[in-house]
Structure formats: structure tokens, C-alpha cells
């Protein structure tokens, strides 16, 4: 895994993103089972609920520990929603889809 892996769009393009676009940053520590599970769960949630409207940046703190300070990361894996504001954090492997949807303010298509 690279120190910073971006999926979807360019991370420097935040200013040009349309409303409703999500910039998500997932902090991990190496390729542990928890980290890999969090990455898979996040990608699944994004594909199902944010198709075409998201960007995921994966930060490996074993390679770049100094990046933890910027988003005040105290545990890994931690997901940080940078856009839309306000900034939000979810800690864990993201296996509870409902908790992730609520935590990111995403509404499921089939919810009332």
C-alpha cells in the first residue's frame, strides 16, 4: 500500500467539486486485517450510496506518522469526512453500515 492512495478524483481538486461530493480520508497502520476490512467496507458503502460523488484518500501512518496530527488521529483505522463540512470522524473497521451512513450524514436510497 502506498503512503497515500487516492481513488476517484484528484485530491487537489476539492475547490472544483460539485455540492454533494464527499472527500474521505481513511487512516490506517499497515495492511492489517482491520485496515483492509475498513478499506473494503468504505469502498462498498461509497459505491452503493455515493457512486460518482466521492474521493477516498488512504493514509498509511506506518509510512507517514506525521500526517496523523493534521486530523488529530488517535486510533486506526479512522475515517475522516473532510467534505462536505463539517469534518466528521468514524473510528473502526466500518463494518456497521448503518453507523457509517449516519456518521457521514448519508441517507440510504431506501430510507423514508
UniProtKB/TrEMBL annotation:
Family matches, as InterPro entries: KaiB-like, KaiB_domain, Thioredoxin-like_sf
Domain annotation KaiB: ranges: 25-106
Annotated signal sequence range: none
Pfam families, A to Z: KaiB (PF07689)
GO biological process, one term: rhythmic process
Protein's recorded name: Circadian clock protein KaiB
Organism classification: Bacteria, Pseudomonadati, Pseudomonadota, Alphaproteobacteria, Hyphomicrobiales
